[in-house]
Prior knowledge:
By secondary structure, the chain is mainly beta. It has helices at about 35-45, 85-90, 125-135, and strands at about 10-15, 55-60, 80-85, 95-100, 105-115, 125, 140-150, 155-160, 170-175, 180-185, 190-195, 195, 200-205, 215-220, 225-230, 235-240. The chain is globular, with a radius of gyration of 18 Å.
Amino acid sequence: MRPSRRRAFAPSVALVVLLGCEPEPELEIGAAAALRPSVRALLLPRCPKPAEQRGEATFYTFAHRMGNCSLEPVPGDMQVGALNTAQYARSAACGACVRIAGPKGETTVRIVDRCPRCRHGDIDLSRAAFERIADCAEGRVSIRWRFVPCAVRGQIRYHFARSRYGWTALQVRNHRHAVAKLEWLDGADRAVPLERQNHNYFTRVSKMGPGPYTLRVTDVHGNTLTDARVQDDSEEVAGSAQFPACAP
Length: 248
């Protein structure tokens, strides 16, 4: 059951700095934004370059609907795709971005769904995305692709779902890099991992209480964001920071 939309609450945040749609200027964080590019690059974390993948691309015609990642479609942004089950990895790829090269050109898409019939390396694209890399008449083409940072704007966001039976479900949205884990810091400041589900929610069966909560999100590069006093009085709550960009 979807909760009703209510006023968003912006929590306080502690940022610990230890996958875009079409390339846009990276969001710069803190004082680094005022520095020369050469100096700023020294302050950014170096992220391992993901391995290039090879497979085939197809396209589907219902990309405007909500997919397995439970992410609401963004009007006007149909550069999206469904990843094969193996690399979907129980929703670990949801919200991540991949740069795809085909016979006609390249594009960057956001992963919003799972393709059950696709083989390892394959991606089922929206028609709009497929048209950027190949002619639709081809139907199926060979591709090369890799994960890339998403060109997001603003902070990460927490999307809440709650059951009358007491379980809590949380989803992280608008993240620059893929999310590796989500933890709840309980009243004793113990990190309690939330379990990732195939539909891109992190859940805890036992009650977390009414909130506010302290949440810690870790991306695939080890960067962490810790948001304090996150209150679930809204369906979607804005965090106060974004994962840092990677050094060039």
